[in-house]
Amino acid sequence: MKRLFIVVIVVLISSLTGCAAMIHSSGSRSETRPQTLYEARLIDAGDGTELSTESLAQRLAQTDVVVIGEYHGHQATHLLQSQIQAALYRQQPLQVLSMEQFNLDNQAAVDAYLNSETGETEMIEDSSAWDNYRASYRPLMEFARQHRLPVIAANAPAAVVRCVGRTGPDYLNRLSASDRKQFPDNPFMDTPAYRKKFTAAITGSHGAADATMRERMNNTYKAQLLRDNTMASRILAARDAHPDHQVIHTTGTFHSEEHLGTVAMLRQRAPEVSVAVISPVIWPADAEKPPLHENRNKGDFLYFIQPLPEEFLDKDREQKAMSARFRRPTKDTCQGDSP
Q1: Phi and psi dihedrals of 249, rounded to 5?
Q2: Hey, what long-range contacts does 213-221 have (CB within 8 A, 24 or more apart)?
Q3: Angle at CA 229, nearest 5°, toward 162 and 159?
Q4: What does the pLDDT read at residue 211?
Q5: Does 214 have pLDDT greater than 70?
Q6: pLDDT at 339 over 50
Q7: Contact 89, 95 (CB under 8 A)
Q8: Nearest one of 84, 43, 18 to 247, comparing CA atoms
Q9: Distance separating the N- and C-terminal Cα atoms of the chain
Q10: Does domain 2-325 match CATH 3.40.50.1450?
Q11: Which of 71, 52, 40 is nearest to 136 (CA)?
Q12: What CDD domains does the database record attribute to this sequence (predicted)?
């Protein structure tokens, strides 16, 4: 039972960190449901008007950090991200791309590719790029490379995140001084609203937990906070390194929607920095109009998209697949942790 709970926790974290196409006229209310998985309806969360990517870019031209939340692997999300990146560049060519999808310990591999020192496959291998890099993130990287824009590997190292989730936040104290310097001061800073949201997501899927499970849930939450604080710190470091540049940050929507997670950490660490959040919302198949009212707090701007197909209908097959996907490798141990 405990093993199943651990699998559930890992799957939830994967989905929490994630895991558009032709957007029409600006200034009118959108009541047309996306017809394909490539389409999105981009809407101002404040007044409900539909926007084109160009009109959105005009509104955000002076914003310091633009955070584009995503459902990992959704075609509409990744097409829209690319369109927004290009539209913002036309408004403000001093631009930095920050990505959750690369970990900070792989920054050198990202830079080598941007500097034409390696090929794409070499970069994918050297940077431990996500499996869907070519389908989802290649357009963002290539736009940055072609326009000689910096790309920030913003996420915390995956091995450290796993070990914090497994053994607790004190794991950082076991790292060498040089490794510890990669992380920001107060790396587990949070907000009550984020903790409440995270706890609801976990307990809503698994129900009540005993003391041991609560400890594991808390460690998992700390691992999530390590990601958020690291990404916020990396974004702010990018602004220091590239003054007057606008930062576009791509991330799983749980890290940014409702202005929580990474966005809340940005505001706590640098309240003078302006941040805009663009969040995805699924348009239900049986809804005639976009569900704006109940979702408007998710971001400053929303984009409505079709749901992805269900991965599994057979729950037993789903459990077996998730167990296999997240099975702990024999040699995957933390300092002081036994296999």
Answers
A1: -120, 125
A2: 213/2, 213/5, 215/168, 216/5, 216/6, 216/9, 217/9, 218/168, 219/164, 219/165, 219/166, 219/167, 219/168, 219/169, 220/9, 220/13, 220/165, 221/190, 221/195
A3: 20
A4: 78
A5: yes
A6: no
A7: yes
A8: 84
A9: 19
A10: no
A11: 71
A12: ChanN-like
**Residue 223 burial (C-beta neighbours within 10 Å; 0-12, 13-18, 19+):** buried
Share of the chain residues as helix, strand and coil, in percent rounded to the nearest 5: 50, 15, 35
Dmax (CA) of the chain? 60
Pairwise CA distance, residues 59 & 30, whole Å = 18
Which pair of tokens denotes residue 154? Answer: 């913003």
Task: Give the C-alpha separation, 153 to 149, whole Å.
Answer: 13
Helix (H) or strand (E) holding 67: strand 65-70
Per-domain residue ranges of the chain: 2-325
pLDDT tens-digit series, residues 145-154: 999 999 999 9
Residue 62 CB contacts under 8 Å (≥ 6 apart), including other chains: 274
> Three-state SS for 334?
coil
Closest CA to 301 of 325, 281, 284, 285: 281
Average pLDDT on 147-169 reads 97
